[in-house]
Amino acid sequence: MANSSECMRKNIVLIEDEPDIAELISMHLEKAGYGVTVFSNGAGFLQFMEANTPDLVLLDLMLPDIDGLEICKNMRKRSELSAMPIIIVTAKNKERDKVLGLELGADDYMTKPFSPKELVARVKAIFRRQMSAEQEADCIDVGGVLLLDLAKHELTVRNTRIELTYTEFKILELLAEKKGWVFSREKILHQIWGEGKTVIDRTVDVHIRHLREKLGADARFIRNIRGVGYKLEEF
What we know:
Layout: H1 4-7, E1 11-15, H2 19-31, E2 35-39, H3 42-49, E3 56-59, H4 68-77, E4 86-90, H5 95-103, E5 108-111, H6 116-135, E6 139-142, E7 146-149, E8 154-157, E9 160-162, H7 166-177, E10 183-184, H8 185-193, H9 202-215, E11 222-225, E12 229-232
């Protein structure tokens, strides 16, 4: 069983319309010490979110009433939900589906059938990274232009708050910690998702593109070194 200080206070919402799968996932998450709330449709989940803020959302895409991708997109448009971790769990296994899910703001993407133990491991990894960030230095100042508040997971660019997803923030944090260093896609995947995860290389490109869009003119400081990877330029 997971350490209670790591996960007992964490609450997870699962949106899954197949009862057997929902029961299996819930059983493994609860065994690991998490609180789990299950919804079989998108409408019930959205109503729940009006008054509640879970720590992580597991989202099926093929729901009976609302497309899961629409739910993901709408969550990312709300400032209070923009950084909430979202893991898509779906039978859609084509690369274009994975890329679209990531483009709309998901932090991770798992295709059915999958091991419930692997899902629990990915959930734990996200919460460990959050806890680690809270214990690190309060902020990273990049040339007086970018300010990353690690405890709050907030980015300020030239005194303007920029909303980032959890994964976008972690990638920028990685690049900012070692300005001028070039990180390969494989290195970024390892640092953010850990070893043994089935994550496509394009995942990094999708999140980097989102970062650049949100940084606007200051996106020029994130350089793509052809054939190698990415780095954050010295300011």
